[in-house]
Amino acid sequence: MVESLFKPIQLGAIEAPNRILMAPLTRGRAGPGAVPTASMVTYYRQRAGAGLIISEATGISREGAGWPSAPGLWTDAQTEGWKPVTEAVHAAGGRIVAQLWHMGRIVHPYFLDGALPVSASATRAPGQAHTPDGRKDYVTARPLRLDEMPRLIDDYGLAAENAKKAGFDGVQLHGANGYLIDQFLRNGTNLRDDDYGGSVENRARLLREVTERLVAIWGAGRVSVRLSPNGDSQGTDDSDPAAIFGEAARVLQALGIGFLELRQPGPDGTFGSTDVPQQDALIRSIFKGPLVLNSDYTVQSAATDVASGRADAISFGRPFISNPDLVERIRLGAAFAPNVNVPQSWYFPGDAGYIDYPTLAEATAEA
Prior knowledge:
Elements: E1 9-11, E2 14-16, E3 20-22, H1 38-46, E4 53-59, H2 76-91, E5 96-101, E6 118-119, E7 128-131, E8 134-137, E9 142-143, H3 149-165, E10 171-174, H4 180-185, H5 200-203, H6 205-218, E11 223-227, H7 241-255, E12 259-263, H8 280-286, E13 291-294, H9 299-308, E14 313-316, H10 319-322, H11 326-332, H12 344-347, H13 360-366
Parallel strand pairs: 3-14, 4-5, 5-10, 6-9, 10-11, 11-12, 12-13, 13-14
Antiparallel strand pairs: 1-2, 7-8
Helix pairs in contact: 1-2, 3-6, 6-7, 7-8
């Protein structure tokens, strides 16, 4: 059955040799100024066997970046820092796209010199933010003004241009997990009564306008989008998810993007649960391009969903942390190496739990 995962696939303009994608994984290993480090070069090169690597969420601007030691793509130094990463992935036979990220109301004022974060409306996320000074309560965001929308879209455009300069194979718009695009999509956080609020068409306007800018820079076949259409995500929810995510699928179908990725966590997922019906079947009926599903997959369930046509590919996240050669392990039917020191090693600085996981061949030779 796993054979279904090893059929090549055309993801828009990107030819992937297998259907085992690496999902975006925030790891917090960038250096000062949100510049990628030498350890990140090693980390991504080790995982180049994936059919396609989707990079960790990468900030498009200082305004949108609120995670300690996450990388960015809004400065020349950041762009230069990504070049060795993409070169290493390509030299190892892989391909990689940059996921573009604006966190919206999830950014704490700590990262903004005390300024308020921005969002669709004046809402406040539940819980606390991670900062270098420890956890801090989220604050009420200020609504983006209409006259700020062109600047926001330009910020996405600059990051997309920098991704091209850095040597990526494309870009993915992060529209999931309760971050800025998601905050505009869902009526639990979008309380606007202007052109960006109210109807599903208006709430999907920012998604459309940003994606249009990315397509203008990269071409539709090298642009993808990630959505999480399955209930509460960091306090972001909607009273009628089928309506808004159906509209989002129509927007993306009309733009002809390369592929759409859906994050659908299980009951113990990080950003949500399956307390409402999953929307992938509805989206599948509207969006006709390649559909990638993610979260809590086993090898068997991944192979089954690809073989059945429910998905065209599966993106794996946490298994790639401790298994840099995940694709080869799946091919051989070998056991996965466990994550150790979790969750500390997910985000803490340093190489431990980051680039020190051996491949199956290395572990066998050492034994």
